[in-house]
Design a protein that fits this description.
Layout lengths: L8 H10 L10 H8 L3 H13 L3 E3 L6 E3 L1 H10 L1 H4 L4 E9 L5 H4 L9 E5 L5 E6 L6 H7 L1 H15 L2 H14 L2
Parallel strand pairs: 4-5
Antiparallel strand pairs: 1-2, 3-4, 3-5
Amino acid sequence: MLQLRASDLGGLQEALDEIDLQPQSECTHRSIAAETRVSVSEVNAAIRRASRCGLVRKSGRTGRPEADNAGLLEFIVHGVKYVYPAERGEPARGIPTAFAAPLLAEELAMDDDLLPVWPYASGSVMGYSLSPLYKSAAYAAARDPILYELLALLDVFRIGRQREKAIAHRLLKERLP
């Protein structure tokens, strides 16, 4: 098992930078379900709930659902820790999250303590397990670098300190125009 240190992140970030981030097909409920290992009915119900609370709205151009990024950012910054409380678990192998993710680790000095990871059998980092938002979040994040960054930033608001949250807030604002 490996333990992640800040010096180990250079290669991981380079690999993430080389991945083609252009969507390969139209985003549908079925494609979202396949990419995230969430059932189609759960995807549909989640979009309906997000619409009712104002986090998703219909696009004026296409009539398809699209995120209300301002509302989403407000929810993440002020509400996510209450709706999705973080549960710290035993040491595990997994994917680094929150301030241990490559995106934030570059900006923060980390010590040699165990760092937060989503438990994932194919992960190569040893840390303390942190409950993900959904049981298949680590699988989906491993397949999609943009989703990985967004979920890791979201986790900062679940477990981070003020300085970490300020950095995550800035990075989220850059990613949610």
